Known about the structure:
Layout: H1 11-14, H2 23-28, E1 40-49, H3 50-60, E2 65-66, H4 68-72, E3 78-86, H5 91-97, E4 102-110, E5 119-127, E6 130-138, H6 143-147, H7 161-173, E7 177-190, E8 197-209, E9 223-224, E10 231-238, H8 244-252, H9 262-269, H10 272-276
Antiparallel strand pairs: 1-6, 1-10, 2-7, 3-4, 3-7, 4-5, 5-6, 7-8, 8-9, 8-10
Amino acid sequence: MSDGKSPQLNYIQNAEISPRKNKAEVNKIPQKYVDRTLGCRHEIKYIISESKAQALARFVHPYLQPDRYSKLQPSGSYPIVSLYLDSDNLQLARETMTGKANRYKLRIRGYTDEPEYPLFLEIKRRVNTVIIKSRSRIMHDNIENLLSGMSLPPQNYTIDEEALKQFQFYMKNINARPMILIRYMRQAFESSLENRVRVTFDRELCYKVTQTPEVKFGGTGWQHHSYTMGNVILEIKFTARYPGWLNQMVKAFDLRQESVSKYATSIKQSYLLRFCAPQLGGQ
């Protein structure tokens, strides 16, 4: 199997852009984590070419600024890795593939392999066309206990107890377990105005089938994602009205909206679908 490595992702091994290189920034992170990911929003996705992505990034610059993580990296992009959980029959993946209006995903997200840096338990719900996301900060050494249903002892950092309990409830309800890791590089722009807008460009999408309760970029077994190979996933997220300049951008660049789920398409490309949900194998 391919290890899925790329020049941009090798920093995980050589710590080129590890949080230790930005201690001043890490120390500024408040004890109570502030969610900057637009917890309740509308979300539109596109698959575009690299040349169009670069042109779009130039277009949005007068309206949006690079987010706090993009600003830290010389390349303007930062890594994301997520461990997705699902039932043995891939209920959550199937609901996405069949277009169920009200559905959710369970994942644990990280931005580095360094154990002293936090991870985030996330529930991403879709209610018709609205995305609602809740998350709770945890540490690497808490994952196994949390996935076994145990509660956390008092920690020296703030935890969103309600989000954590909801995650465990949803997980127990379908007997969810670790299913697949997904990683990519993200370039993100955002607005801090009341009508929050966020535009992201995701590149180098890879996946790795796993049953291990671990959120890591490194290791072998990574596979490049054929569905988006050489292309970029563009996501437009906004909390209230759709700004006029975004409408102009979509028309000017002839963007065609697509239904793109990194989780569902990774499951479909992996062998899991053949063994866990053969009724969807031909879709």
